[in-house]
């Protein structure tokens, strides 16, 4: 099982000055050493978490002909559904059904199930507020002024997606994969699952470790863009999903990034402060990085293509 930092979100927003500073330091350390942390007391009601999970389940349960129109082939389709088995370039098979929708700045929702749009709007809004608060803490942990970062990357008008992942039960760890090893593209992603069925594994110090979700918690992943803007100080999380031998599993992931047209750069303040005075990544437009990742989806291949030197 993976060791993880547990962050009490309520202390970040309502704690004393000292409590907040302690949490900011804990978040910074988790982003630097592990690339993820668990979030408790985050304020997303259990009823909303259950509702968004049920709404995704209802979508996957629609007859295939009703889901067909969303089987998008284009990368930037705002609603994109995929189902079944996929083969990687080297012939490896993985199995998951997914639905990916854009939720911000504009919500795109399938017409059915009927309640889908309102629930995703609400879940998207709640998690977006959490992500903004976490990013404020992250900039603080890097000794950056929020305004300084905002001038470079406008996260408030940024891009948020929501993904429902549905994995079948499978032959068990190391035999079947739901998702191959990858890192998430955006700045942060927030992963939610209901129930105790495990499957998510994170790579740490040369080993794959299974995540045991703390009941009611959310998991926060550092994404590739945060590795770039922090000039390599914070590491995006390499993770994969194994199929569970006895139960199917569902996860809901939301990813927050800047405006797709924004150029993502190692923040100059951090390049100057790094001692070596060198940027460790070349700058790239977010939208171009998404295209690069689509062509190089596994491991941290896309990030390695914009890396200027070993970190
Ligand atoms: O199913 C999970 O726990 C994680 C899914 C994931 O990594 C993703 O959608 O990028
Ligand atoms: Fe992921």
From TrEMBL:
Protein's organism: Apostasia shenzhenica
Protein EC: 1.14.11.19
Homology family: Belongs to the iron/ascorbate-dependent oxidoreductase family.
InterPro entries: DIOX_N, IPNS-like_FE2OG_OXY, IPNS-like_sf, Oxoglu/Fe-dep_dioxygenase_dom, Plant_2OG-oxidoreductases
PROSITE patterns: FE2OG_OXY
Gene Ontology molecular function, alphabetical: dioxygenase activity; metal ion binding
Domain Fe2OG dioxygenase: 157-258
Protein name as catalogued: Leucoanthocyanidin dioxygenase
Record keywords, A-Z: Dioxygenase, Iron, Metal-binding, Oxidoreductase
């Amino acid at each position: 099982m993976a060791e993880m930092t547990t962050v009490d979100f309520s202390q970040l927003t309502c704690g004393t000055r000292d409590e907040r500073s302690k949490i900011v330091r804990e978040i910074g350390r988790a982003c630097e050493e592990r690339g993820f942390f668990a979030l408790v007391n985050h304020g997303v009601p259990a009823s909303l978490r259950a509702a968004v999970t049920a709404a995704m389940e209802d979508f996957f349960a629609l007859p295939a002909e009703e889901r067909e129109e969303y089987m998008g082939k284009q990368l930037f389709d705002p609603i994109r559904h995929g189902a079944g088995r996929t083969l990687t370039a080297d012939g490896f098979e993985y199995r998951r059904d997914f639905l990916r929708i854009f939720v911000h700045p504009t919500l795109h929702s399938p017409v059915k199930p009927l309640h889908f749009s309102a629930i995703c709007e609400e879940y998207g809004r709640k998690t977006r507020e959490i992500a903004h608060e976490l990013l404020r803490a992250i900039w603080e942990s890097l000794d950056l002024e929020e305004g300084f970062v905002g001038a470079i990357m406008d996260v408030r008008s940024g891009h948020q997606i929501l993904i429902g992942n549905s994995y079948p039960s499978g032959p068990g760890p190391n035999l079947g994969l739901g998702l191959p090893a990858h890192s998430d593209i955006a700045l942060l992603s927030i992963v939610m699952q209901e129930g105790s069925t495990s499957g998510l594994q994170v790579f740490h110090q040369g080993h794959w470790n299974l995540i045991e979700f703390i009941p009611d918690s959310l998991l926060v992943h550092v994404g590739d863009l945060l590795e770039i803007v922090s000039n390599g100080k914070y590491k995006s999380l390499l993770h994969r999903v194994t199929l569970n031998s006895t139960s199917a599993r569902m996860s809901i992931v939301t990813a927050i990034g800047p405006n797709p047209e924004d150029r993502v750069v190692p923040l100059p303040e951090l390049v100057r402060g790094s001692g070596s005075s060198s940027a460790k990544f070349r700058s790239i437009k977010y939208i171009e990085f998404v295209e690069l990742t689509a062509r190089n989806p596994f491991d941290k291949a896309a990030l390695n293509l914009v890396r200027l030197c070993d970190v």
